[in-house]
Amino acid sequence: YIFYGVPSSGKTELTSAIFEGEHIMISAELGGKNSETANSIPVGDYLSLKSLCRTLCNKEVKDEIGDVIIVDTITKVSEYVNNYILDSHGKEFLGDVKSHGGAYQLIDKYFNQCFDPLKEIGYTMVWVTHADELQKTLDDGTEIGYWTLNGNKRILELIKKEVDNCFFLNRIPQQDGSVKRVLYTDATAKSFGKNKINSPKGEMSLCIELDKDPRISAKKVIDNMREALEGRGKENLTNDKNEVSVYEFREAKRPIEELRNEVIELGGKLSDIDKRDEAIDIMNKYLGLDYNGQQRGLDDIGQDGYQTLELLISDMKEILE
């Protein structure tokens, strides 16, 4: 699923309420922290994002927390991937990244490294993101506003081709000064959408008016989707269980010299157990080539590349374990 919408439309609250008690929310924004129904874990950069995904990619953890991963938001996750690529290559713009086939291939690589393993063990992926309003020209030449997804275009294409349903949340001003919040469950002339729940046996309402209470709104949506959501409704996960299952991942920048020294130390330990070649392969994979095609070394990684070395260290520790 994708849920996208305008600011203050209740994207995070509605999504977490629909899947209440059976999800973990990878929270790159503040919405999950403020939602009563969200079991959210904050992430602050690509390193913490990938670390959390690794922790969740475990069948025992999945059995404990439920079958649904909510990513809030695509917009922010896109930013993490972009910044990781720029920092690890010492560049300011993605267009300047020429190694490894260019930025597009790197975006695919680092995004998929996080989320493909989660899909492979059977999680249902639910993506939340912001909306962009574009100008659309109709056949008669009339221009209208058209709502679509916000985020890295490359990442959006990866997600859109895999999801079955894409719902749009909007705020509609009323004559009395109030604002009505609505959910569009399929494409309209003014918004992108997708719905594979609809069938000859029955269709969802195209527009569902939402309540101020996210649980009431969620019930309205679930009633419309009931056939597709059979078996949902596990007991809500307590905070204690949440803390035991996973921990909070936050941005933490260790000094680059400390990271370099740990890589050297781990490389020595791997050599001691006849894993030197594997250590070299991992280092080459993460450090990459410079623009002359030469293998980069540890000294070529500055402080902005700390996430690269943290991930390298994590892989080296996995081999030792």
Largest beta-sheet characterization: 9 strands, mixed
Query: Termini, distance in Å?
Result: 36 Å
Estimated share of beta-strand residues: 15-25%
- Mean model confidence by pLDDT: 84
Alpha-beta classification: alpha/beta
Order of helices and strands: EHEEHHEHHEEHEEEHHHHH
Tally of strands: 9
Measured on Cα atoms, how large is the radius of gyration? 22 Å
What can you tell me about this protein's structure?
With about 325 residues, the chain is of the alpha/beta class. The chain is built from eleven helices and nine strands. It has helices at about 10-20, 45-55, 60-65, 75-90, 105-120, 155-160, 215-225, 240-245, 255-270, 275-285, 305-320; strands spanning about 1-5, 25, 40, 70, 125-135, 145-150, 165-175, 180-185, 205-210. Strands 1, 2, 3, 4, 5, 6, 7, 8 and 9 form a nine-stranded mixed β-sheet that branches. It is elongated, with a radius of gyration of 22 Å. It starts with a strand and ends with a helix.
